[in-house]
Amino acid sequence: SIRIIKKYTCLNMNYLLLIMIHIGVGLHAVGGVWPMPQISASSPEQYPLNPEAFYFEYGRQSEAQPGCSVLDAAFKRYFSLIFPDYFPGDNLSVCAGQASLKAETVWGALRGLETFSQLVYQDDFGSFFVNKTDIEDFPRFQFRGILLDTSRHYLPVQAILKTLDAMAYSKFNVFHWHIVDDPSFPYQSQTFPDLSAKGAFHPMTHIYTQTDVQRVISYARLRGIRVLPEFDSPGHTQSWGKGQSDLLTPCYKGGTPSGAFGPVNPTLPSTYQFIARLFKEVSSVFPDSYIHLGGDEVNFFCWKSNPDVRAFMQKMGFGTDFTKLEAFYMESIVNITSTLNKTAIVWQDVFDYHERIPEDTVLHIWKGVPYDYTKELSRITKAGKRVVLAAPWYINHIAYGQDWRKSYTVQPLNFSGTEEQKKLVIGGEVCMWGEYVDATNLTPRLWPRASAAAERLWSDEKQTSSVEKAFPRLQDFRCKLLRRGIQAEPLYVGHCRHEYQGI
Amino acid sequence: CMRNQVELVAQSSRYGSLWPLPQKVQLSDVSFKLTTSSFRIVDAKESSAGPSCKHLTFLNFSCHCVIFSTSTFVLWATSFEGNECDAFRDQPTHELTVNQPFAVLKAPKVWGALHGLETFSQLVYKDEFGTKNINQTTISDFPRFAHRGILLDSSRHFLPIKVILANLETMAMNKFNVFHWHIVDDQSFPYLSRTFPQLSQKGAYHPYTHVYTPADVKMVIEFARLRGIRVVPEYDTPGHTQSWGKGQADLLTPCYAGSKPSGAFGPVNPILNTTYDFMTQFFKEISTVFPDAYIHLGGDEVDFTCWKSNPDIQKFMEQQGFGQDYSKLESFYIQKLLNIVSTTNKGYMIWQEVFDNGVKLKPDTVIHVWKGNAQQYKNEMANVTSSGYQTLLSTPWYLNRISYGQDWQGFYKADPQDFKGTEEQKKLVIGGEACLWGEYVDATNLTPRLWPRASAVAERLWSAKDVTDISDAFNRLSAHRCRMVERDIPAEPLFSSYCPHEYKGV
C-alpha cells in the first residue's frame, strides 16, 4: 500500500522520506493512475515537490536496504520519470513533507513506485505537485503478460527493452517471448549453434546471443517482469530443421520424399535426445520456473504421408488417430520439462487433444470468440487445471476505430463454473503476433491498446466497467506514455501537451 | 499461434526492386561496379539545366548517400526554356540508359530528371561482397496519371513539421507528386493566418505549440517543390468548420433549440454578408501563400440540422424560394464561394457532393470522388466524366481504414479508369489520392500506417494499366520497403520477412 501524507514542517530538513507505514481504506478513485488502484482516496489538498530536494529512502524497519539492486535501480529510474527535463540547479524552496510506501515484496514496491510516479503532475508554470492521497493496491490477477513474436520478424534488442519499459508503466509482469517459429530461429543456442547459424534470417545480424538474452532477462527483472520463453513444437518448427537435420518429419508424395518437411518427427529417439539437451540449456538460461512448450496447430498431413510414421502408429496401437501421436510427443516433452524442475505452459490444443499432462501444467487459451473461450474456460478449470486467457486479446488483429474498448470490456471470469474453478484463472495475456509487425510499427500498435487489457487484469472489474469513464483516463495515460518516450498511438482526435517529435 | 497461412516468401523479381514499375524497362545481366570516389553527376553540355538549377544541385547532395559510381552519371536535360527550371508544370517523361562508362538521363523537364534520378538510385544494389553494382539498363518512363497525391490531415491531430517533411521525402521515393494538405477541420485550426491570426490563436489545440507559422508553411512548400511535389491546401467549408468559429465570431450558424440559441454552432452561416467578406479576404491570403494553381475547397458532409433550426435561415430560405430543400442553400453558398475563389485566379478542387448537388462549376473544376462502395464510385466516375469534368479518385484508397492482413493488395487492384465510359471520359480521370484521415493517426503511427501501403497506390497511378501481377509486385514491393527502411523511413512490413538493415529507431 502507498500512503502519501504531507506534514507541513517548514524545518531545515528539505527532504521527502519514503517510510513504511500501513494504512487503510479510501473512498474516491484516483483518476490519474492507470491501471486503476483497487482502493484509493485523494483530496484536492496539493503538495508541491522540489526536485532539488526530493529523494527516496528505505525505512528503518524495512528489510530492503541500499544494496537491494531492484529498488536501487528503481529509485534512480523513477526520479527521472517523475521529474522529466529536470536540470540540477533549479532553485525552488518548498516545504518539506513525506510520503510512505509499504510493500511486502520488492515487486510490490516497484508497483507502488509506478503508482506514485503517476500521481505527480506539473502545473502551467512547470512546478511539480502531488495531492494528498491514500492508496491500497494489489492486482486482481497474478499473471499479466505480453507476448512478442521474434520469429516472423526479428525485433532488435532495443525494441524489446523499450517494450519492457512500457510494460512496467502498465504494471504488466510477464514477458512471453515467442522467440522461434517457422520463419526464423534467432535464438543462438550454445548446445546447438547450427540452429541459428542455419535457421535465423541472418546468422550474425538477426540473432539473440546469450548476452542479448541475459540483457533482456535482467532488464525485465529490474522492472518486476518475468521472462517466459516459448519453444513451440511439434508444429511451428520449419526453421529448426535447417540446422538440425532429421528433426523434422520428411513429407512423402506417393512413395518418395517430396523434399518438404513437416512437424517434429515424434518417432525417433534422436528427437527426444535433442529436445532434452535443448531444454536443459533453455532451463538454465531462463531462470523463470515456467517454460512454454507451445503444442498448437499441428498439421497431420505430413505425418500421414510418411510410411515410417504410419508404421510407428501401428506399433504403438494408435491406429489412424494422429491426435494420439501428438499426445505421445507432448507428454514426452512435458515430462522432460518436469525432470528439469520446470513447470510447463502449453496452448489449449494440448488439452483439447486429451493429452495426459501433469496437474500443474498451465493451459493457454487462444482460440475463438467469447462463446468458444468461455466454454473452454469452464472445461479446463473443471478438469482442475490452471489457465491463462489470451483469446480476447490478440491485438495483432487491428481494425479501424477504437478497438481498445473491446479489450477493456472483456470479462475473464464470466463463465460457468464454481468459485474454485474461477480461482484457477491465474491471469491473461496480450498477444502481438509478428506476421505484420516489426520495429517500424510495434510500439504504436501495442500501446496504448495493451493498456486497456492491463487495467482489466489489474483493477477491480466493478470499478472499471465503464468505457466512457475509462476513455479520458486512458487518453491522459497515453499522453504520459508519450512524455516517457513511448511512441503510443492516439485513441481518438485530440492532442497532448508534448507531442511525439519523431517520424 | 495463428492460422497456418501459406507464406509468401519474397523472391527476386526480374525487374529488381523498381517501384513503381517503369513503362518500359530492359534489364540485362551485365553488371558494372560502382565506387564512391569517382561518382559524379554532371550536366551534359547540351543540357539547359545548369548548376543554377536548384532542384538538381539539391538532388546531387541527397543522392550521395544512396548511390556511388565509377561511371560518370551524365544528366542530359533538354528543352529547358528560360526559367522552366523553376516553373511547376509536370511533364516527368525521362529516358535512362545505364552503360559503361556513362549513364545518361534524358528528360525534357526537370521533374522528369528528378524521377529519373530516383529510378537510377533504385537500380543500384549490393553484391555479396558489399560492393555496389548496377546492371546495364534501358528505361523509358512516364506516369500514366498526372495527379498522384497523398492527403494528410493535420486537424484531427497536429502533425509536427518533421513528420510532414519525412513523408514528402518518402512520397518522392514513390513518385507521388501532390501533397493534399487537409490543414484545418472541426477539431483544430493550426494554420496561422496573417489576416486573421485569431483563427489559430483560439482554434488551434495550442496557439504556440500546435500551429503552422508562415515560415513553417513556406518550408513545407519549398521542401516539396525541390522534390517535384505540388502542395494543394484544403480549406473545407461550409461543414467541417467548428474550429473556425472559435476565432471568428458570427462565421458559424448559431443552432436553435426551440426559439432560443442552444449555444452550439453549425456550418458556416450562408446568409450573412460578413461571411463572404471574410471568405474574400481569407482566400486572398491563401492564394498568395500557396503557389499551386489549385485550391481544394472541400464542400463535403454538410449537416443541415443546425441550418434548419435557425429562424433567420428559415426566413432566408423562404425569401429565396428554396422551400425545404437545404441542398439549395448549400449550393447557394458554394456558388458564391467558388466565384470568390475564381477572382484569385486559382482553379478549385471539390469533393463530389458539390457536383452531386448540381452546383454550377467552372469547366476546369476537379471533382474528388470519395464515397460509396465499388459499384457506387464507378458510377460516380462515369457521371462526373460524362459531364465533362476532370476527376480524382480516392474511394478505394482510404488508407486510414486499417484491417488485419495484406490490404495493400486491394489498393493495388483498384483502377481509376475501371468504369463504363468513352475514351474521352477516361482521359478526364487525371489521377487519384491515397487519404490518411487523422482521427486515429498522428506522428506516433503515421509513417508505418502510410508506407508501404501507399506505395501500392503509387504504382497503380504511375505504371501501365496492365501491370497487375500481384506476386511480382509483392517481390518488388518487399525490396522497395526494405529500401525505405534503409533510408530511415519506418515503413511497416508486408509479411513475415527480414531486411538486411532493419529499422534502427525504436
From TrEMBL, chain A:
Cellular location(s): Lysosome
Gene Ontology molecular-function annotations: beta-N-acetylhexosaminidase activity
Active-site residues per Swiss-Prot or TrEMBL entry: 297 (proton donor)
Record-annotated Beta-hexosaminidase eukaryotic type N-terminal domain positions: 96-119
Membrane-spanning segments: 12-34
Domain Glycoside hydrolase family 20 catalytic, residue spans: 141-460
Catalytic activity field: N-acetyl-beta-D-6-sulfogalactosaminyl-(1->4)-alpha-L-iduronyl-(1->3)-N-acetyl-D-6-sulfogalactosamine + H2O = alpha-L-iduronyl-(1->3)-N-acetyl-D-6-sulfogalactosamine + N-acetyl-D-6-sulfogalactosamine; Hydrolysis of terminal non-reducing N-acetyl-D-hexosamine residues in N-acetyl-beta-D-hexosaminides; a ganglioside GM2 + H2O = a ganglioside GM3 + N-acetyl-beta-D-galactosamine; N-acetyl-beta-D-galactosaminyl-(1->4)-beta-D-3-sulfogalactosyl-(1->4)-beta-D-glucosyl-(1<->1')-ceramide + H2O = a beta-D-3-sulfogalactosyl-(1->4)-beta-D-glucosyl-(1<->1')-ceramide + N-acetyl-beta-D-galactosamine
SUPFAM superfamilies: (Trans)glycosidases, beta-N-acetylhexosaminidase-like domain
Assigned keywords, A-Z: Disulfide bond, Glycoprotein, Glycosidase, Hydrolase, Lipid metabolism, Lysosome, Membrane, Signal, Transmembrane, Transmembrane helix, Zymogen
GO biological process: carbohydrate metabolic process; ganglioside catabolic process; glycosaminoglycan metabolic process
The enzyme's E.C. designation: 3.2.1.52
Gene3D superfamilies from the UniProt entry: Chitobiase/beta-hexosaminidase domain 2-like (3.30.379.10), Glycosidases (3.20.20.80)
Gene Ontology cellular-component terms listed: lysosome; membrane
Keyword presence, Glycoprotein: yes
Listed PANTHER family: BETA-HEXOSAMINIDASE, BETA-HEXOSAMINIDASE SUBUNIT ALPHA
Biological role stated in the UniProt entry: Hydrolyzes the non-reducing end N-acetyl-D-hexosamine and/or sulfated N-acetyl-D-hexosamine of glycoconjugates, such as the oligosaccharide moieties from proteins and neutral glycolipids, or from certain mucopolysaccharides. The isozyme S is as active as the isozyme A on the anionic bis-sulfated glycans, the chondroitin-6-sulfate trisaccharide (C6S-3), and the dermatan sulfate pentasaccharide, and the sulfated glycosphingolipid SM2. The isozyme B does not hydrolyze each of these substrates, however hydrolyzes efficiently neutral oligosaccharide.
Quaternary state and interactors: There are 3 beta-hexosaminidase isozymes: isozyme A (hexosaminidase A) is a heterodimer composed of one subunit alpha and one subunit beta (chain A and B); isozyme B (hexosaminidase B) is a homodimer of two beta subunits (two chains A and B); isozyme S (hexosaminidase S) is a homodimer of two alpha subunits. The composition of the dimer (isozyme A versus isozyme S) has a significant effect on the substrate specificity of the alpha subunit active site.
UniProt record similarity statement: Belongs to the glycosyl hydrolase 20 family.
Listed name of the protein: Beta-hexosaminidase
Species name: Sphaeramia orbicularis
TrEMBL record, chain B:
Catalytic activity of the protein: Hydrolysis of terminal non-reducing N-acetyl-D-hexosamine residues in N-acetyl-beta-D-hexosaminides; a ganglioside GM2 (d18:1(4E)) + H2O = a ganglioside GM3 (d18:1(4E)) + N-acetyl-beta-D-galactosamine; beta-D-GalNAc-(1->4)-alpha-L-IdoA-(1->3)-beta-D-GalNAc-4-sulfate-(1->4)-alpha-L-IdoA-(1->3)-D-GalNAc-4-sulfate + H2O = alpha-L-IdoA-(1->3)-beta-D-GalNAc-4-sulfate-(1->4)-alpha-L-IdoA-(1->3)-D-GalNAc-4-sulfate + N-acetyl-D-galactosamine; a ganglioside GM2 + H2O = a ganglioside GM3 + N-acetyl-beta-D-galactosamine
Top-level taxon of the source organism: Eukaryota
Glycoside hydrolase family 20 catalytic domain location: 145-464
Keyword Glycoprotein: yes
GO biological process: carbohydrate metabolic process; ganglioside catabolic process; glycosaminoglycan metabolic process
Cysteine pairs bridged by disulfides in the record: 53-85, 255-306, 482-499
Keywords: Cytoplasmic vesicle, Disulfide bond, Glycoprotein, Glycosidase, Hydrolase, Lipid metabolism, Lysosome, Signal
Residues annotated as the enzyme's active site: 301
Entry GO terms, CC: cortical granule; lysosome; membrane
Location in the cell: Cytoplasmic vesicle, Secretory vesicle, Cortical granule; Lysosome
Subunit structure, as described in the record: There are 3 forms of beta-hexosaminidase: hexosaminidase A is a heterodimer composed of one subunit alpha and one subunit beta (chain A and B); hexosaminidase B is a homodimer of two beta subunits (two chains A and B); hexosaminidase S is a homodimer of two alpha subunits. The composition of the dimer (isozyme A versus isozyme S) has a significant effect on the substrate specificity of the alpha subunit active site.
Similarity-based family: Belongs to the glycosyl hydrolase 20 family.
Protein name: Beta-hexosaminidase
Gene that this polypeptide is encoded by: hexb
